[in-house]
Amino acid sequence: MRNKIAGAVVVIGLVWGLEQVVVSPLETGAAYPEYSSLRSDPQGTMALYESLSKVMKVERLYKSRMRSDPGPGTTIFVLGINPESWAQVKIETLKEYEELTSKGARLVIGFLPVSKPWAADKEVHAIQSHWHIHFNYRDLHAEPGETPRETALEFKAGPEWKELGESVIERKSGSGTIVLAADSYPLSNEGLREERDSDLILQLAGPANEIVFDENHFGVVETGSVVKLMRKYHLEGALAVLVLVAGLFLWRSASSLLPSRAPRAEQAVSGRDSLEGMTALLRRGIAEKNLVRICVEEWKKTSLNDLKSRNRDLNNAFIDHKNVVVAYRGISKALVEKT
Beta-carbon neighbour count of residue 71 at 10 Å? Predict the structure, then answer.
C-alpha cells in the first residue's frame, strides 16, 4: 500500500512539474522575451495586441520584416529593443529600415526601459552620422527587481525628426515613416492596466488599417511545426491532458492496481498413484472414528461366500469399534481364521 501511495505522489509531482515547465509558460507566455505579444503576464504586450485586434486587422510576424513587403497603411511594432546595443547598428541595417518604409509602411521601434549605463559611449555610430540622432541617459533611480516604469533614455535628434510626445520622435522615410519610442512600458500589459495612454497608442499607430507585431526579432520564427499549431489554436490544455494520460499509463504499466500475490515456494510438483489418491479421498470424506464401521458395511455388501458366519465373526470383532486399532486387529484375525 505504501508503494502505491509513493507511486501516486511521484506521478502527481511529475505531472505538476511538466505543467510548470511546459504548459504554464505557454499559457502565460513566460517562455518569450519581454514585450512580446505572446506574453499575457505584466511584461508582455498581449493586451495591446488583443485590444487593437478588436478595431482593425492585427497580425504577428514570424519571418524577416524585409520578406513581409508591407504597403501603405501598415504599421509594424518592433518592441522590447535594447537601446544600448541598437545604438551600435550598422548603416546597412538603417538602410534596410528605409527600404522597408519606402512603400508607405510605418515602422515603430520601442526600446526597453533602462537605467543610465556605467560608462558613456563616445564612439560615433551610424545612427548619429546617418540619422542624426544621439542617445542620452539621465540619472534615474530604480528599485532592484522591479519592472522599470521609466527609462533613463532621452533622444537628441536632428531637425528631420519631429517630436510626437515625451521621448517619442518621428521622421519621414520614403513614402512611410520611422518612429522611435524611448520607453515601451506604457504599451506593456502592466502599463495598460495601471495607466491606459490611448493618445500615445494612437500616435504610434498613426493612420494605420493594419498592425503587425514583429516577433521574429525575439527569435520566434515561423517553422510550420506542431508548436506553431498549438499556439495558433490554443491547444496548451490538450497538451496538459496528453501529459496526464501518459503519466497514468506509465504508472499503470509500472504497478498493477490489483493486490500483489504472495510468492510461492519454488518446489517440484510430484504426482500420486491410485492408492495414494484413494487414501486422500478417504481422509477427506470419512471421519477416522467411522472408518472401520464403514469398511465392514461395504465388505458385507460385496461378500458372497459364507456371509452369515463371516458377518457374525466380524460383528464380534467390531464390538470395540471405538478403538480403531483393536477393531482392525479383530477383523483381521476373523478373516484369517475363516480362510
Answer: 12
Which pLDDT score, from 0 to 100, does residue 19 have? 54
**Do 94 and 162 sit in the same domain of this protein?**
yes
Residue 25 falls within a domain, yes or no?
yes
CA–CA separation, 315 vs 296, rounded Å?
9
Are residue 112 and residue 184 in the same domain, yes or no?
yes
- The model scores a pTM over 0.70: no
Task: Please indicate, yes or no, whether residues 190 and 231 belong to a single structural domain of this protein.
Answer: no
Domain co-membership, 48 together with 171: yes
**Least confident among 171-180, 259-268, 283-292:** 259-268
C-alpha cell at 187: 504599451
* Residue type, position 20, single letter: Q
Taking the CA atoms of 7, 10, 16 and 17 in sequence, report the sign of the dihedral they define. Answer: negative
Which residue(s) pair with 75 in the sheet?
Answer: 106, 211
Indicate whether 267 belongs to any domain: no
- pLDDT value for 317: 54
- Domain extent at residue 89: 33-219
Residue 289 has what DSSP assignment? G
What confidence tier does 280 reach under pLDDT thresholds 50, 70, 90? confident
Assess whether 232 and 279 both reside in one domain: no
Can you tell me the distance from the alpha carbon of 64 to that of 181, in angstroms, rounded to the nearest whole number? 21
Q: In sequence order, what are the beta bridge partners of 177?
A: 106, 172
Q: What is the pLDDT of residues 119-140, one digit of tens each?
A: 777 788 899 999 999 998 888 7
- Residue 185 and residue 247 in one domain: no
How high is the pLDDT of residue 129? Answer: 92
